[in-house]
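#structure-requests
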Amino acid sequence: MSLWSLFQVASQVGGEVLGVGAVVPASLSLDTRTIQPGACFVALRAERDGHDFAAQAVEKGAAALLVDHPLDSDCPQLVVPDTLAALQRWGQARLAAVRPRVVFGVTGSVGKTSTKELLAAAVGGWKTPGNRNNTLGLPEALATLPEGLDAAVLEMGMSTPGEIRRLTEIAPLDAGLVTLVGTAHIEYFERGQQGVAEAKGELVAGLNRGGTWAHLAADPWCRWISEQPWARHAVALPVGEGEAFGWEDIRSLGAAGSAFRLRTPGGGLDLRIQLPGDHQVRNAALAAALALHLGFDAGRVAAGLAAVAPEPGRGRLHALAGGGCLLDETYNASADSIQACAQALLHLPGGEAVAILGCMRELGGDAARIHRDTAAALKRLGLSRLFAYGDFAESYAEGFGAGAAAFPDFETLRDDPSGLSAIPPGARILVKGSRFWRAERAVDWLLAR
């Protein structure tokens, strides 16, 4: 079974084909800024109406359009009552038609994407590209899922209750992995961290009966999930101290990553990863434990994990011309991930340990306290300086104390003599922040100098 023609999609999602129905889209696109030639452009109605950009999509090489009313265009069109519903049904139907032997889902408050990469490499599976982990991106990726796969690893994110439940309806899961239940997006949960746990637990609730899900044995909220009535149809696989699967003998390899020994019911397995930090060891141990428990070959698991290289914004390490190094963790930020990355920084070569932090988001009424507590934890770890910017930069500085500097925005951090230019030569530098604050600008500035 090859990719579907527009006529074949119409038979799955309903609607009317206008123009050449035999055209076979190579991919789907929701954004004309990133559309590739041969894609089907999906015109969604959101803050801006995607139909207004259809002509631009055609100019950029769109092979077809998914629309909710006929447009004045020679490009083939599939006209449906609701383009969002049709997009989700397209991805759902494609997965059902070419379903791999094992479909994994990965979620968690931190480390989803890195763990997805590690698990996909461990099982030799297809993976959702980038961070297509929501009710738009996941079906967009699944719509052109290849056939004949042994495994697929799907990242599942959320910011509000019910999102992961909907994702598991689109993509029913055979196995799952929850990295950690933290405080990310807690602003949107009246029940606080329990609400976050319930939302992450929607992945477990959505597992097919008898499916297995892995989690850190030390995470009390994952334990809580495993005890809920709606999770009893699934098999929990705790990984860590006192469990059949766990990790031990961690050795930092500096810029080369880490080595560790995975404890398994069948004996120990020596593993190496290129991603720096104990938190990445935990992610790799979760991925390896789940893969081995489900019968994947140990040699393939080890080789796959060793091949995963850090991506920009997700643990990529740069050697600096004046000595020291820069750890690029700019993709996003939460209290848990900041502390984990700071610990990783301390195992790297160089001089003073310095953090450049854009503020966190979606923390609700506790935002100031969480920023203070996070900064205080960095000071206790042994970081010597903190450069913070954003709306809670003063809270960061208050928690860190001596050695902290606060700036209202990136431009001030960049231009003030006490900002980026004050970082000492040879320093080990962690750069991290929420997407809103675009902390990658600090990485670009530092690497250019």
